[in-house]
């Protein structure tokens, strides 16, 4: 898809002498309005059009057409480390581990998590009022967690399966996590809208480990536009990552500062999906919040 925008430019320029065989085209003075009022020296040009023009004259040019292309969508679906952007905030890095959990093992984990996690529906707040988040969640850790202007109370009693998964991710990635947001998307209509995990309690450049089970959903990312775009996301880079059963996605560096993500509703049937996002939350008095 391409959008052609004409930018206002000065429609012409003062050109030097134009020879009759020259590359640039000088509009014959006879095409200019008000010819009769021109000084005699210019008026002569009308009479001797075949003669080389030796005076400066205004050359009309078509305004330049500036073509802006919407960057091509990038799909990431193979194992690897991907630096998706670099800015003053640093490198935004993704690390994808498909089949981090073996499919058979992932099947029984999904069953246990769906039955045994104390799922509940959160009530969030936005400008037009309160709304029920279209998914179920559970929060584990020592500290409360606030997003969308609603706070989840901590549950320090980790399900043993969650502790085992946390340990396994820590061993492989070398990061340590102290909290976990569990998400249950009951069907294709459950979703989470554009946001970034950039709450002050997560500190600067938070690392998020996101482990998925169940039906595949597309994790969509879009880059935050520069100030000159005034909040217009039309031309930003986009990345789609299909997150399937047992896949681990690590988001590191400036990813939360420079990108947003969402899991949109789908318009064809999807079965349930569980997503576990391991994070590190810092206490308010740690100084990290400033
Ligand atoms: O479900 C997912 O893959 C993403 C969840 C998410 O972005 C969040 O809970 O902050």
From TrEMBL:
GO terms for biological process: DNA alkylation repair. One of its GO terms (cellular component) is nucleoplasm. Belongs to the alkB family. It catalyses: an N(1)-methyladenosine in mRNA + 2-oxoglutarate + O2 = an adenosine in mRNA + formaldehyde + succinate + CO2; a methylated nucleobase within DNA + 2-oxoglutarate + O2 = a nucleobase within DNA + formaldehyde + succinate + CO2; a 3,N(4)-etheno-2'-deoxycytidine in single-stranded DNA + 2-oxoglutarate + O2 + H2O = a 2'-deoxycytidine in single-stranded DNA + glyoxal + succinate + CO2; an N(3)-methyl-2'-deoxycytidine in single-stranded DNA + 2-oxoglutarate + O2 = a 2'-deoxycytidine in single-stranded DNA + formaldehyde + succinate + CO2 + H(+). It comes from Microcaecilia unicolor. Dioxygenase that mediates demethylation of DNA and RNA containing 1-methyladenosine (m1A). Repairs alkylated DNA containing 1-methyladenosine (m1A) and 3-methylcytosine (m3C) by oxidative demethylation. Has a strong preference for single-stranded DNA. Able to process alkylated m3C within double-stranded regions via its interaction with ASCC3, which promotes DNA unwinding to generate single-stranded substrate needed for ALKBH3. Can repair exocyclic 3,N4-ethenocytosine adducs in single-stranded DNA. Also acts on RNA. It is an enzyme of class 1 (oxidoreductase). Residues 176-282 form the Fe2OG dioxygenase domain. Keywords: Cytoplasm, Dioxygenase, DNA damage, DNA repair, Hydroxylation, Iron, Metal-binding, Nucleus, Oxidation, Oxidoreductase, Ubl conjugation. It is found in: Cytoplasm; Nucleus. The gene is ALKBH3. Interacts with the ASCC complex composed of ASCC1, ASCC2 and ASCC3. Interacts directly with ASCC3, and is thereby recruited to the ASCC complex. Interacts with OTUD4; the interaction is direct. Interacts with USP7 and USP9X. InterPro entries: AlkB-like, AlkB-like_sf, ALKBH3, Oxoglu/Fe-dep_dioxygenase_dom. Pfam families: 2OG-FeII_Oxy_2. Its EC number is 1.14.11.33, 1.14.11.54. Its cofactor is Fe(2+). Its main location: cytoplasm. GO terms for molecular function: broad specificity oxidative DNA demethylase activity; metal ion binding; mRNA N1-methyladenosine dioxygenase activity. It comes from the Eukaryota. This is Alpha-ketoglutarate-dependent dioxygenase alkB homolog 3.
């Amino acid at each position: 898809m391409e959008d052609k925008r004409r930018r206002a430019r000065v429609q012409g320029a003062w050109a030097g002498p134009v020879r009759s065989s020259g590359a640039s085209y000088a509009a014959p003075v006879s095409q200019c309005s008000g010819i009769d009022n021109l000084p005699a020296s210019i008026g002569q040009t009308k009479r001797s059009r075949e003669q080389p023009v030796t005076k400066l004259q205004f050359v009309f040019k078509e305004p330049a057409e500036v073509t802006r292309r919407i960057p091509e969508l990038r799909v990431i679906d193979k194992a690897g480390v991907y630096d998706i952007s670099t800015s003053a905030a640093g490198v935004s890095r993704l690390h994808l581990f498909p089949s981090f959990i073996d499919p058979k093992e992932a099947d029984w984990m999904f069953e246990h998590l769906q039955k045994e996690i104390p799922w509940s529906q959160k009530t969030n707040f936005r400008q037009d009022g309160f709304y029920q988040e279209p998914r179920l969640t559970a929060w584990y850790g020592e500290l409360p967690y606030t997003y969308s202007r609603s706070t989840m109370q901590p549950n320090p009693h980790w399900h043993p399966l969650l502790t085992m998964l946390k340990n396994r991710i820590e061993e492989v990635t070398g990061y340590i996590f102290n909290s976990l947001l569990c998400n249950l998307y009951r069907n294709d209509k459950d979703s989470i809208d554009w946001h970034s995990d950039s709450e002050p309690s997560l500190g600067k450049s938070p690392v998020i480990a996101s482990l998925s089970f169940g039906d595949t959903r597309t994790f969509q990312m879009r880059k935050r536009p520069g100030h000159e775009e005034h909040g217009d996301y039309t031309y930003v880079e986009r990345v789609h990552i299909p997150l399937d059963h047992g896949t681990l996605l690590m988001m590191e560096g400036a990813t939360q500062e420079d990108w947003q993500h969402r899991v949109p509703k789908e318009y064809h049937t999807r079965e349930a999906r569980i997503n576990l996002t391991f994070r590190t939350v810092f206490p308010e008095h740690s100084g990290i919040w400033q």
